[in-house]
Each structure stands twice: as structure tokens, then as C-alpha cells.
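Per-record layout

source: Mastacembelus armatus
name: Spermine synthase
length: 362
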Amino acid sequence: MALRHYTLDFSLSTPVDAASTVPGLLSVFHDQEMTETVHDTNGHGYLATLVGKNGRLVILRVHSHGLVTIDLQCYEEDNIAQLDNLLNALEKKLKVLLKGNIIRIKRLPALVRGAEVDRYWPTTDGRLIEYDIDQVVYEEDSAYQNIKILHSHQFGNILVLNGDINMAESDLAYTQAIMGSGKENYADKEVLVLGGGDGGILAEVVKQKPKMITMVEISFSSKVIDGCKIHMRKTCGNMLDSLTGDCYQILVQDCVPVLKKYVQEGRTFDYVINDLTAIPISTEPEEDSTWEFLRLILDLSIKVLHPNGKYFTQGNSVNLTEALSLYEEQLGKLSCPVDFSKEVVCVPSYLELWVFYTIWKK
């Protein structure tokens, strides 16, 4: 059973006297058969809770600094038309009571809490986004991660790993950006893809007829492949139906020993595409194992990169300037000197601008 949470805020040019405002508001609640309990605020305005039928709860607050807030909570199956009428009546009454004192009225869509299907994710810098997700189409747990594929009316099916949105069927822009944004020619090239379990990179590179693509996806992500080949076919096509094809092979293994083996063998690639993880939000690289992993993968990847080859990877949100700067510092500490460029791309389902890197040997 989910809860709907409505908010109605009135920002005022001057504080108001609760004694002259509250009685008129209470009449609206009484019409809805709600009863109030007044709480002591130690001089910080007026506060009352009101309880009505079907478990409705209202928190009415007249703040001492010139703000009136109304929070309405009800169960999801409650009569939405009645709730809208209540909020409309409160808004109308306050406009009369406060007259010309109102600077701004803000009424937000209801926040649905505790629903079976979660629709809310924070951006990397902490802003809350609501998605139009209506169902879970796939969910599995591996030894290290929870895997969900959710359906969105706007973005299609969305792959979510451990609560983080990874890829939606709408997100071709992500795949194109991590491949070089159409500036590279993959024909007859040797390509190494690290991660990429949604199959999007594999499907796009294959179109350019490379010599061979080796995609290395860690074994606990085999369930990612299983889910995506059924529910993300707009992204992967039929590429995940088989672990081998005319110009590709998928190794379901840990990429670290594979990379170390390639280094020992002296094997090189024209392109290395790292789709394993975003740059960590934490800015403590010496204390964060994710940073250690990132540096290890980066160093090994540069070692297997052809002298004229290129390494592509995602960064993170353009707003995470400190973490991105720290990543760029790491590029100066590799065993082989490198140069880099970066590009900012709008990835539809991320709902924020995302940074991608191109790295090459000096």
C-alpha cells in the first residue's frame, strides 16, 4: 500500500498573524470532517495536525518568518478528485485571507512513497528525479549486485544496477559518445570492450565490420546479459543471443586477469572501450577501493593499447567537477604518459549532462 504526499506552499512578503488566518483555514478542513490537534512550537508560529477519513493526515504550519505550508498525506487508493478539491479550496481560501501578501504559491505533484515500483532517483548532485516507470520487467540478484530492468513510457526499458540507472533503450547517445561520437572508423580494427553487458556498444561496433571485438564481462554480470538479451533488444539487437559471432567474442570473466594476460602476451588493440563503472563520486582516492580499481583498469588498458590507439570511457555528471578533476590528475600518474580530451553529452534517461573521455598515448 503506497502513500501519496501533496505539498502546498505560500511564500509571503510579511509574516502573518496565525490567529487571523487559521480559523478560516480550519473551516475548510472541518468541511472535510477532519479534526485538529494543535502543537506547541515555542513561539515559532502555528502548528496543527489534522486527521480525517481514510487515514488522511494534514500538517498545517504558519511559520513565523512569512511562510505557510500544508502537507497532505493519504493512501494511494484514496479519492484523488476529493483531494484535489480540498487543495483547491485551501488555495482559494488562503488567497482571500492573505490578500496581497502572497509572493508565490507552489503546489507540487504528489510524491508517491512506499510504492511497489520505485520511480525516484537522485541525480549525482542530490536532486530528486521522478521517472514514469510503471513496472519491473526483470529482477535478479547476483553475488555482488541487484539487477533490475524497469519499463518507462518515455525511455523504454531501463537497466538499473544496485539502484543506479545504467542504460535505457533511449540512450543511443551514451553508446555513441563512449565510441568516439562518430569520429572513429572501426572497420578492420581490433576492439576490446570492458563491461558493456547491455550489449549496446557491441551492437554498434559490429555495424562497422571490425576485425574482432573482444568483450569482457565479469561472470556475476551474466545475469545482466540474460536480462538484456530479452528485455533490452532495442539496445543490443541479437548480439547477446550468442557469446560468439563472425567478428566478436564475449568472455564472461573478470577483466583484470584477462588484461594482465594480454599485457604478458604483448597483445594490443586499436580501441579499448571501458564501460565498467563511472568515475567515483568520492574524492578520497587513496581510501576508496573503487578509485584503486579504476586506476588499475586504466593502467592495464593503456598497456594493451596500440601506440596509435584510443581509449574511451565515461566520466560522470558534468556537475561533479572535483571528482572529474581528480580523475584527470590520475591520468598523469600512469606508467605510460597520456593525453586526453573530453566531451559533454546529454544522455536522455540520465536527465543530466554526462562527461566522456578519450585518452591516447603521447
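summary: Residues 80-98 form the longest helix (19 residues). The CA atoms of residues 199 and 338 lie 28 Å apart.
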